[in-house]
Amino acid sequence: MSDTRSAAWDDYSKTKPQRRTTNADGETTWFNWTQYADHGPGVEVLALQPGDCVLDLGCGSGGNLAHVATLGMKAVGIDLSPKQLAKAHERWPDVDGMELHQGDALQFLGDTFTIFDAVYSVFGAAWFTDPRLLLPIVHARLKPGGVFGFSQRPPVEGCYGCQASYIPRGDDEDPAVVKRWDYQPDIWSSLLKEYGFPEVTATVLPASEADQRTTGTLLVRAVRGVQPQLF
Ligand SMILES: C[S@@+](CC[C@H](N)C(=O)[O-])C[C@H]1O[C@@H](n2cnc3c(N)ncnc32)[C@H](O)[C@@H]1O
Q1: Does ligand 1 lie within 6 Å of residue 79's CB atom?
Q2: Distance from the alpha carbon of residue 70 to the mean position of ligand 1, in angstroms
C-alpha cells in the first residue's frame, strides 16, 4: 500500500514546479497555508518559540519547512515521496536545522521518541490519513499546549469522510488514486476535541481575490490538552 501511495505522489511531484525564488514581499522563504500565492496567514498560527522542534507531515518539496528552519527552529519533515524529497534537497541544500525523512507519517510518529512543540501539515499527510488513526498519535507526540495546524481543500458539499483523490498521470495512463478525508469545520472541531485537543479553530478561508479560482482553504488550528489521553 505504501509503495503504491509513494509512486502516486512521485507522479504528482513531476507535475509540480519548484516554489518561486521570492514571494511578493521579496522574501526568499515564507509559510503558505493555502493553494494561493501570497495569501492567508503565516507561521504565526503555530505560536512557535525560538528553538522549537516542529514536524511537517507531508512536507513535499519543503518550502514551508525551510521557512520554519530559517526562523531558528529544528524543522523535521516526513514525506512518502522520494521525488518530493529530492526536490526539497535540491531547492534547500544549505538550510541549517532542516531534517528530511522518507516514509509514512503514521509510521514515523509511531517510531519517534521526540515530543514536538508543534505539528503541521499543508495539504499534506493530515489530509491523506484517517484522522481516527492520526489524531491519537499526533496527540502522543505533541507537547501539552502545542499547536497542531493543518490546511486542505474544504469538502465538496455532501461528500464527507473518506474520498478518492485522483492524481493525473500520462495521457495514456489511468490516474493514480489515493484516499483523503474530508469533513466540514464543525466535524473537525468535534473530532479534535474527542482526541484531546480542547481548543480548536476550524474555518474556511476565502479564496484569494487575486485569483480566478473560488475554492477556499480549510484551516484547522488545534491546541493539545494538558491531560494524557487513554484512547
Ligand atoms: C499536495 S502535496 C503537499 C506538499 C507540501 N505540504 C506543500 O504544501 O507543498 C501532499 C504531500 O503529502 C505527502 N503525503 C501524502 N500522504 C502521506 C503520508 N501518509 N505520509 C507522509 N507523506 C504523505 C505526499 O507525498 C506529498 O508530498
Answers
A1: yes
A2: 21
CA distance 9 to 2: 11
CA of 5 to the centre of ligand 1 (A): 10
Q: What is the pLDDT of residues 28-71, one digit of tens each?
A: 999 999 999 999 999 999 999 999 999 999 999 999 999 999 99
Positive/negative CA dihedral, 130, 196, 47, 200? positive
Bridge pairing between strands 98-102 and 176-182: unpaired
Domain boundaries, the chain: 2-17+29-223
Ligand 1 close to Cβ of residue 134 (< 6 A): no
- Report the percent of the chain where pLDDT is more than 90: 95
Per-residue model confidence (pLDDT) at position 174:
94
CA angle 168, 124, 209 (to 5 degrees): 80
Q: Which atom of ligand 1 is nearest to the CA of 56?
A: 6
The confidence score (pLDDT) of residue 231 equals: 62
Q: Ligand 1: does its nearest atom lie under 6 Å from the Cβ of 137?
A: no
CATH of 2-17+29-223, one of 3.90.1150.10, 3.40.50.150, 3.30.830.10, 3.30.1130.10: 3.40.50.150
